[in-house]
Amino acid sequence: MTVTELWFDPSLCFIDGAWVPPAEGQTLPLANPSNGEEIGQIARGTAPDIEAAVQAAEAARDGAWGRMPAADRGRLLARLGRLVQDRAEDLARIEAQDVGKPLKQARADALALARYMEFYGGAADKLHGETIPYMDGYTVYTLREAHGVTGHIVPWNYPMQIIGRSVGAALATGNACVLKPAEDACLTALAFAALAQEAGLPAGALNVVPGLGAEAGAALSGHPRVQHISFTGSVGVGAAIQAAAAPNVVPVTLELGGKSPQIVFDDADLGAALPFLVNAGIQNAGQTCSASSRILVQRGVLEEVTARMAERYGALRVGPALDDLEVGPLISARQKGIVESFLARGSDLTVAAQGDLSAAVDGGHYVAPTLFSGVAADHPLARDEIFGPVQVIIPFDTEEEAIAIANGTDYGLVASVWSRDGARQMRLARQIRAGQVFLNNYGAGGGVELPFGGVGKSGHGREKGFEAMYGFTTLKTVAAYHG
Ligand code: NAP
Ligand code: MG
Q1: Under 8 Å between Cβ of 172 and 54
Q2: What is the mean pLDDT of residues 296-321?
Q3: Boundaries of CATH 3.40.605.10 in the chain?
Q4: How many whole angstroms separate alpha carbon 14 and alpha carbon 194?
Q5: Helix 88-99 to helix 187-199 angle, to the nearest 10 degrees?
Q6: Ligand nearest to the CA of 211
Q7: Which of 209, 215, 234, 414 has most ligand 1 atoms within 8 Å of its beta carbon, as the pocket-test mutant?
Q8: 195 CA to middle of ligand 2, Å?
Q9: Is residue 440 over pLDDT 80?
């Protein structure tokens, strides 16, 4: 599958069950990060397209979609999941060419999208209210109701996974969605819309408007008739979206990245830890909100962990997405510039090892995966999110020190603890400030079933798992007096 063989036209928006040109007739170029080549044009949707999408979603909410029994909604999502699964290889090849991720990662993303539809399809009719004991003569119960029209603003790093978790939970609970994918990564969002059409999703239940964040994204986040916004991306844009939604007083879910630590104690099973330590940092070229960019290592195993991580870094090959090496290009020249400026700020640090750039191709946005060792916890590279294949090793002596370092950034998304001491595992699981803590493993981006989200500047609200179904609904209490 090449992008010239798509089963949908990427220069169109998907609104009200139909493929329509953007109202202002403009397009944006589509680039392949592996070689910088232009591979097509996508729609540049603007405020009128968002307005049309919101109207379509309102009609769906008030019509066939809103009235559909939960079991039927679930069946449609399950059918959509099977279509995604059947087309997983095509979706993976499209994604690899659009965002530069190695094929095996793109395949995992496509299968995760299918799995989200399966999970939320199955969950759709299992969201129950409660009955509440109250005064004599009353029966009180709660109803979980859809917000109505939900807005979904998605970044470029894991389009399929983030669409799956956000749109999947919203549709399962009966919301009608308006999705604004990132301008750098629209193709699988549109492919998904085409498959939703094939699955028989009613018109207006899912609308996709590609375009720029400052145009289509801003129109969606400030739209007065959108009843919930779900956003994944940078802290600055997340804050702007929360501010844009504030006058409309609608709930906002923000997932804004992190500086997630893995903490390796002297008693850890290093053989088990090593693959996780490196993979969680270089997966998707480090462009992962839950990337593990800080490796905290207790002094007794510091030398060994540094040497073994360095050995793995030396074996990392960087190249075009379709070559399916360990690391692909970054998404854009802009992102490459951001990562290179961080590497320049690390010029005072020790480079323990770098990956192999010999398979990189001219015009692509490649950087060498870089492991820094012996880094102080207050160094900018140990505090700020880099969003590239860069990890720092931070030494520590005591458990208390490890906790202080782990909690010492503005973020709190994911953490892991590598130790054979069960009591220590339990202490750290409680004391680390993060939305997820892994004990003797690490899941960067994985876990359809696992509630996910952050504290601090990592954001608020929870996606994934059953928990997301609560976020995409509002609770109504009905108190009946019958004497
Ligand atoms: P971003 O600017 O936050 O973009 C995320 C999404 O928000 C995109 O769909 C973007 O659209 C949209 N957007 C941008 N400005 C908007 C606005 N004013 N109103 C509404 N929507 C808007 O992220 P980025 O520029 O792609 O990446 C920059 C940094 O963000 C990265 O270096 C990384 O640190 C962080 N990031 C985090 C995650 C994560 O998973 N938490 C994901 C991606 C990036 P367009 O892109 O089409 O303009
Ligand atoms: Mg692209």
Answers
A1: no
A2: 98
A3: 3-256+460-477
A4: 8
A5: 160
A6: 1
A7: 234
A8: 21
A9: yes
* CATH architecture, range 3-256+460-477: 3-Layer(aba) Sandwich (3.40)
Checking if the pLDDT of 314 tops 90, the result is: yes
Determine if ligand 1 sits within 6 Å of the CB of residue 167.
no
Q: Which residues pair with 332 in a beta bridge?
A: none
Residue 221: what residue type? S
Place of tokens 């803590």: 437
State how far the Cα of 108 lies from the Cα of 161, in Å rounded to an integer.
9
**Phi/psi at 175 (5° precision):** -80, 160
Other C-beta atoms lying within 10 Å of the C-beta of residue 291: 31
CATH architecture observed for domain 260-447: 3-Layer(aba) Sandwich (3.40)
Distance CA 71, CA 96 (A): 35
For residues 212 and 44, is the Cβ–Cβ distance under 8 A?
A: yes
95 band by pLDDT with thresholds 50, 70 and 90: very high
Bridge-based pairing of strands 473-481 and 206-208 is unpaired
Residue with tokens 């669409």: 163
Q: What would the pLDDT profile of 342-365 be if each residue is shown by its tens digit?
A: 999 999 999 999 999 999 999 999
Tokens found for residue 17: 């069950």
State which amino acid sits at residue 53. A
Instruction: Specify whether the CB–CB gap between 153 and 215 falls below 8 A.
Output: no
Look over the chain and give the mean of its residue pLDDT values, rounded to a whole number. 97
Nearest to 371 by CA among 394, 357, 354: 354
- Cβ(159) to ligand 1 under 6 A? no
Cα separation, 107 vs 368, whole angstroms: 23
Tokens 């145009």 belong to: 215
